[in-house]
Automatic annotation (TrEMBL), chains A, B, C, D:
<feature type="domain" description="Arginosuccinate synthase C-terminal">
    <location>
        <begin position="178"/>
        <end position="399"/>
    </location>
</feature>
<dbReference type="InterPro" id="IPR023434">
    <property type="entry name" value="Arginosuc_synth_type_1_subfam"/>
</dbReference>
<comment type="subunit">
    <text>Homotetramer.</text>
</comment>
<dbReference type="InterPro" id="IPR024074">
    <property type="entry name" value="AS_cat/multimer_dom_body"/>
</dbReference>
<comment type="pathway">
    <text>Amino-acid biosynthesis; L-arginine biosynthesis; L-arginine from L-ornithine and carbamoyl phosphate: step 2/3.</text>
</comment>
<dbReference type="InterPro" id="IPR001518">
    <property type="entry name" value="Arginosuc_synth"/>
</dbReference>
<dbReference type="InterPro" id="IPR048267">
    <property type="entry name" value="Arginosuc_syn_N"/>
</dbReference>
<dbReference type="GO" id="GO:0005737">
    <property type="term" value="C:cytoplasm"/>
</dbReference>
<dbReference type="GO" id="GO:0000053">
    <property type="term" value="P:argininosuccinate metabolic process"/>
</dbReference>
<keyword id="KW-0067">ATP-binding</keyword>
<comment type="pathway">
    <text>Nitrogen metabolism; urea cycle; (N(omega)-L-arginino)succinate from L-aspartate and L-citrulline: step 1/1.</text>
</comment>
<feature type="domain" description="Arginosuccinate synthase-like N-terminal">
    <location>
        <begin position="6"/>
        <end position="169"/>
    </location>
</feature>
<dbReference type="Pfam" id="PF20979">
    <property type="entry name" value="Arginosuc_syn_C"/>
</dbReference>
<keyword id="KW-0055">Arginine biosynthesis</keyword>
<keyword id="KW-0436">Ligase</keyword>
<dbReference type="GO" id="GO:0006526">
    <property type="term" value="P:L-arginine biosynthetic process"/>
</dbReference>
<dbReference type="GO" id="GO:0005524">
    <property type="term" value="F:ATP binding"/>
</dbReference>
């Protein structure tokens, strides 16, 4: 059947392997698309597996560099954070993968796009809104929302059975009693035994970062240099190792952060579909970069612009979380926020130690900090009597309010 | 001269002692008001000193309990933070002290209020806006803004000379090359050698918290119970020590946090008067409580209410920082935010270790978390096909936008 | 079949009559619920019709008083407006009707709720979110979204055929080439020939308000008195007619506004489902009340509280438009905004003339306006030199920014 | 004394003439700067007068075109409005005049800038913040805030005496019992008998617009074409008159609006200095343009971008009102908002009649309105069943909230 081609976001794992085979059974030509976004994966093995399972084509793309510069950098510029805690490590990967899929679909003339995300989560939304936004005529196949598929695959046993029957290699390591998502920015752990929000996570759940108690007993010092709100250089003070290319910088900071147990959180968050879920995340470089950027930003950015930026950043975080990366509003805030970063440059001195990030100092050629002006020992241009007027004018409204409200109260 | 009485916010230190004597010289009767807000001070010695210096009256008031329940609790409920980092430990103390002063002024029939805050800082504003709001007819004497005073006291040497001449006891310990402010919530360090934002703070600058590197090698576990968004119980898991009264709870958490080096930050912030300044703050209990409250809040609060709360909280933080605690807008947000906390209750399991706070788990009788609903293994009431419709309707606007913008672009 | 009872939001018109019969055919017992929210309807005729069509029960409820006090009053307090123009006349009626339906369902033990709203509009959402919020176990039948129903009723001809076959009385007047929704607050006109946003609406489309060109040649003057942000009295100056009960006040203002062609708009708006639609609305009393309330509010409310109120009001308007009247966030803003109205009281002098509303003057016992303070001829307590300090401190940041940005630019 | 030169914002009226002479008495060389921003003034007579009074130089500059394109256009793009009612006609003129003054000061090497604004108003702030921002080293002379000046000129009698003594021509027409400010955008009336907010303004107070009752009995129709959010053409339908240059367009719309009594308001507003004041404003073209722009914007702008725009626009209006046109935050929002206007283009059909503006229809090549999609008669691509899923997912949170809150309540 011509053109019934589907581009599947293939991970190499059991689920999407079963989906690949199932899609074929349903009569589709399947192009397996696997984006390298920094996950721990044997890509050649994955290619072989998909080919063996009958994929018409297997496309493996290393998008790590783009993932850093086009997706993570705008988030760093904006200091994005969802509900005051979550750094959006999974959320940001979805539009990056979806874009890759759409590019393949357009090139190959495929109408269908498919993914292995569940029907209760955020990822289905992030994938599909990206599909629809970049490719309005896309048709989506989301097996985990389709009754016929769900009926067939009620639990892991069914998947195993199906795998055995269809020559899908079974995972060699036993599955953890939780699920995991991984990319350059973070690893997440959720569901399974973690679904009870009271249950403490197992001590060794985190794969990327050293447990803080096992981290080095000596702090590690380094500096990050920013230009236009993004890191352009990282340098460690002990080993002098220095990185100055986006992907290298990001990986370098991941190493530092991982070594010292940085960026582990355990939270309950609000999903877009209206339910609360519990997640455990580790985001070493992301955590360091947010602290560093907040610091260099505040010495170079006007305070009222900062307030606007904070509002827009909060909106931007919502958009990213809910899947609206590719959207008119996403584009608008991205461009506006980028504007705000023109002068955000300088060097931040930092230290990590046993799970915590410390800022030690900062300097910037575009600093708006005026040491002389702020000094208690220098009067300079500043006339303290001005402050008296400033306060009295600010107080005018408060005094009137108290006076008149008291008057009213007495009168009644 | 009748009624030329001034109530001075007296600290017991050199500056306000000199101001006390100077005010007398200027012809005022001086009432020294010293609020115990948890600073490290010998209050009886301070009383004696003020009396010796000729204060007409010395009033020392232990307001620690009120400081916790009336000032810190609303901040905890709101998750207040200024510019994403500062927990407002100095800001919140000012209206508390100012209220004490105004009460004394009204009782004693004094028209004048005075304080020792500098002319470049935020504290002068926080003191005086509180004065004016609570006592619209107040007259303010801010010596550090008055030319005659500044002329007389150009540097510390002048203060020392004046002190010697007027029998003001000199500090026995040499002054640090920075200035400090202290209360139950935090200690701040700024100015002096810290004015250069690049200069790293001395290793042992912090007085309250143990240096993280010197903190215990074993994590400490405890739980905090909340009711209506404020802590009602703290219990350590090792020593079983438990506290359930506001001041006790706060002190208990300060102990835990101090022991483990919690809540140290080094930031550049935007002062209300328009300059940037650098501050180092330590806020052990405040840091723990913010993390704990964010956690219990997110499991018990609706997500859309949370967004509103976040906006109001951000405004509230601005008001507190800029001195508008006593203001119509301050009252409005305080009441609104309190409303949002009716169901914020439950127990958070926590751990501190070497400078970092960890959430381990949480439980709540008023939880909106539905383990069955979120479970990937249970369909329950949730129909995954609904999500397809949800996504397609959300995508409608995006698809139209892409389609029409592409059309427009082609046409042009 | 026990308990397969459905409560239908019955309007008395052709569509819901067909739905009533169709529901019966589908095996439901139908309770017809008809809320009197001020539409122009012969309610007894409607009752007879529904009974004749086989409704198990017909419940007609006059909810006009509640509609005014529980639904419109919070909107008046908040100055609600959607996208700067739409006064939400249709939006606000839906939760009011839905609540009536749910009450009946609970009382009668019915599980099902049904309505005649289309599948592309906002009303389906407003009805159903209200149902689900008030009655979480509700089951919804929305015929205009069901393939079987849509297939059967492809156009008006099908409805007419079905009506004839089933003894449903046909409308005596020919249908306008647009659709209409009506209640005490407004009448809306949309779809049909109005779907082309360029097409001018027919001159005589509006049923409630006189065409401005046909309105009286003399302005009409009246005053509205507010208490706690809601009107408590309306008095005309010419005929001395006065009203002081909620429903009477609202009807009185509708009369005044209708006579003078007040409150007609023609807009394109953004529906919740993501499409733009064009609507023509007439909202006479609502338009007058919004102007009057804005005016009395601004003389009695602190300016910073006003900013918060404006933000919350904007959110509230979004919630009402998108159907979240009954929701945690809706409750939260309603309560917060009500708080802000404690002192919003006084009398506004107004005039209407040929389609426009004018404010002539206002007075209030709780006014924060201080005539003496603002007067250019009186210095009073105000020291103009304070303004100099106020300005200089506000300028500090601006001057620094210019100075340092220029320096930076020169250096580069 | 070299370089003690002051650039005075000269209006040609009595006040600034007295200030001119007084400044000379105080030892300054005075450069009189008079900007033509569309006020009704005999500029040559003013030049002569200033020269006669001893101005070292008189500079009269026609900045009307710039006033429209650089100041009003960004406001039109943003739909600016202060406190929901005031169109900022006076506010926006100040930075325009101040910029002219600063340019002269820089060119002439003058250090001082002066204006005739009072010490209680907003204009002093708008002038001076603009001065300081554009010229950080500026020194400001604000006579109406200086004790020596105020002492000398306690009332109008003193001004008259001084004028007579110094050869300053007295106004030939008796002064109205209120004060006025005028420019191309609007005329304002305040103070004097208008200070009592209850007092109705005299029938014939407005100078620019015809009283609505005296306006033509026939409506007038015209269309406005927009491109990038600003008007590029106005055409009347009756007389076919058409304008397509910024200043011409603005004047043309002022004519239309003035003829029909458009844009008159009577409000109480909150001044930046903390007091409430009452003002009467007439803004004919500004009122028409805001309505037209809102309309064309809503058919061409994505709804979520619109929400962001609305927030930023509200902030922008605050900045303009409080004098922060030239500021980092002002620049930021101006640029962001301009971005949002890229596709805001099309033609709006309008009508004015007896004081009211009506939108009749609109069309746009960049429209996001899809007539087919919204049509109730066409299914097209839209699947109504999607709406069911959309609603149920949106309801999930509401149902859970009701269910769990009820459970909690029962349990307690």
């Amino acid at each position: 059947m011509p053109n019934k081609t589907v581009v599947l976001a293939y991970s190499g794992g059991l689920d999407t392997s079963c989906i690949l085979v199932w899609l074929k059974e349903e009569g589709y030509d399947v192009i397996a698309y696997l984006a390298n976004i920094g996950q721990d994966e044997d890509f050649e093995e994955a290619r072989q597996k998909a080919t063996n399972l009958g994929a018409k084509k297997v496309i493996i793309e290393d998008v790590r560099e783009n993932f850093v510069t086009e997706f993570m950098y705008p988030m760093i510029q904006a200091d994005c954070i969802y509900e005051d805690r979550y750094l959006l490590g999974t959320s940001i990967a979805r539009p990056c993968i979806a874009r890759g899929q759409v590019k393949v679909a357009l090139k190959e003339g495929a109408e269908y796009l498919s993914h292995g995300a569940t029907g209760k989560g955020n990822d289905q939304i992030r994938f599909e809104l990206s599909y629809y936004s970049l490719f309005p005529k896309a048709k989506v196949i989301a097996p985990w929302r389709m009754e016929s598929f769900i009926e067939k695959f009620k639990g892991r046993t069914d998947l195993f059975e199906y795998a055995k029957k269809n020559g899908i290699p079974l995972p060699v390591t036993p599955k953890n009693p939780w699920s995991t998502d991984e990319n350059l920015m973070h690893i997440s752990y959720e569901s399974g035994i973690l679904e009870n929000p009271k249950t403490e996570a197992p001590r060794d759940i985190c794969k990327r970062t050293t447990h803080p108690e096992d981290a080095p007993d000596k702090p590690e010092r380094f500096e990050i240099e920013f230009k236009k709100g993004v890191p352009i250089r990282v340098q460690c003070h002990s080993d002098k190792k220095s990185s100055d290319k986006p992907l290298e910088i990001y990986k370098h900071l991941n190493e530092i952060g991982s070594r010292h147990g940085i960026g582990r959180i355990d939270i309950v968050e609000n999903r877009f579909v209206g339910m609360k879920s519990r997640g455990i995340y580790e985001t070493p470089a992301g955590t360091i970069l947010r602290e560093a950027h907040l610091d260099i930003e505040n010495i170079t950015m006007d305070k009222e612009v900062r307030k606007l930026k904070q509002y827009l950043s909060n909106q931007f975080s919502q958009y990213i979380y809910t899947g609206f990366w590719y959207s008119p509003e996403g584009n608008f805030v991205r461009e506006s926020l980028a504007k705000s970063q023109e002068n955000v440059e300088g060097i931040v001195q930092m230290q990590v130690y046993k799970g915590h990030v410390y800022i030690l100092g900062r300097e910037s050629k575009t600093s708006l900090y005026n040491e002389e002006l702020v000094s208690m020992d220098v009067i300079s241009d500043y006339n303290p009597e001005d402050a008296a007027g400033f306060i009295r004018i600010n107080a005018l409204r408060l005094r009137e309010n108290t006076r008149l409200r008291q008057m009213t109260e007495k009168m009644q």
